[in-house]
Amino acid sequence: MSRTVKLNILYLSRWYPNRYDPMPGLFIQRHAEAAKLYNNIAVVYVHAVDVKPAKKFEIIKETINDVLTIKVYYRSVKTHIPILKQICKIFRYYRANFIGIKSLKPEFEKIDLVHVHILTRLGVIALFYKWFKKTNYIISEHWSRYLSATADFNGIIRKMLSRIVTKNASAVTTVTENLANAMKNHKLDNKNYIVLANVLSPTFLNYHAVSHDNKEIKNIVHVSCFEDKSKNVSGILRVVKSITKERNDVHFTLVGDGMDFFKMKEYASKLEISPDKLNFTGLLEGEELVKEMSTSSALLIFSNYENFPVVINESMSLGVPIISTNVGGISEYLNASNGILIKAGDEDELKKELNLFLDGKYVFNSEKIKQKAIHDFSMKNVGNQLNKIYLETLG
């Protein structure tokens, strides 16, 4: 197929920024925007709501950053009969998706390729397109449920359908080799697994970071969704308590919001961490987030398990080194040139490495970190990789 011809590619996404939460699937939106540099992209996303909307299926059709986007908000199923509820939930979910796909017209008459983001249900739609409309599809998986640390990939039917869908895909992309191997361990076989990086937001790429090397008080920033089981924010707080009792040249900033946010604030109070040493900002987005991260001396990740958090890309783009647990696929991107790797859950090691960092025992070249991130994670570069995958898929 000629590279001058733009393909019409349908993105079916399990997660996507929506009216209730702007954060889920933000990295998928960035992939769509990167792919749009080379092809025509349309996104369909559906979202069940408990609050009764004006219509049973509310269709929001808009163009976001040049990407045609259909969001279908549909009424949650209300019944106390478990089997009936499950059947109705599945039926309504698929109906919402097909309503969204139908709403792509007239702008998107023909679909050349389907790109599924996150299994399993959306993969069934892609399989339908392949079997009945002769339209190929690829899969991008982002979920950490396949990792042994989470053990969340369960259910006979889910596993069976996932294996069929994965086998019939023209390609499967993951952000790390670690996630690809985890999927293969679950017999999600495909001959064309490809590692594809997350995309940096232009807000990060275009920001001119200030120097943070010579600050008397170094600020260590942590950015997460405040889900303590995975992010281990409580472990960070215990180390903050210990290290700030011994030295006055460090400050910690915790950025984000989520299910355990208030619990962690209460825990910090219980530990009697001085407000002068620790700050909770809540959710920050766009320029506010970039500014906070750019003025930090290091990004801190103390997760028990991860795939590959996009905040690492963002930190690198600002020339800020990372101190992180060696979990998931993080070591595929993080090394001695841009950060420090430690054992998951080892608070003593975290404290030790933080002290070494604060004492100047680690030296990082911020400009080199930044330039490599810009090259590897830019929309142009990732979009070009996606374009090659699409063209190879269609022969």
Structural description of this entry:
By secondary structure, this protein is an alpha/beta fold. It has 2 domains: 8-199 and 378-393, Glycogen Phosphorylase B (Rossmann fold, 3-Layer(aba) Sandwich), CATH 3.40.50.2000; 203-376, Rossmann fold, CATH 3.40.50.2000. The chain is built from 14 helices and 14 strands. Strand 6, helix 4 (156-168) and strand 7 form a beta-alpha-beta unit. Helix 1 crosses helix 14 (379-393), helix 8 (233-244) crosses helix 12 and helix 11 (310-317) packs across helix 13. It is globular. The chain starts with 7 loop residues before the first strand and ends with a helix.
Distance between the termini: 7 Å
The amount of helix comes to 25-40%
- Helix/strand-derived category reads alpha/beta
Shape: globular
In CATH terms, the superfamily of the largest domain is Glycogen Phosphorylase B
For the record, the count of structural domains works out to 2
Mean pLDDT: 94
Low-confidence stretches: none
User: According to CATH, what is the topology of the largest domain?
Assistant: Rossmann fold
The secondary-structure element order is EHEEEHEHEHEHEHEHHEHEHEHEEHHH
Beta-sheet strand percentage?
15-25%
Instruction: Quickly give the CATH architecture of the largest domain.
Output: 3-Layer(aba) Sandwich
CA radius of gyration is 22 Å
**Main beta sheet strand tally, sense and closure:** 8 strands, mixed
Total beta-strand segments = 14
Count of helical stretches: 14
What is the C-level CATH assignment of the largest domain? Answer: Alpha Beta
Main sheet strand line-up: 3-4-2-1-5-6-7-8
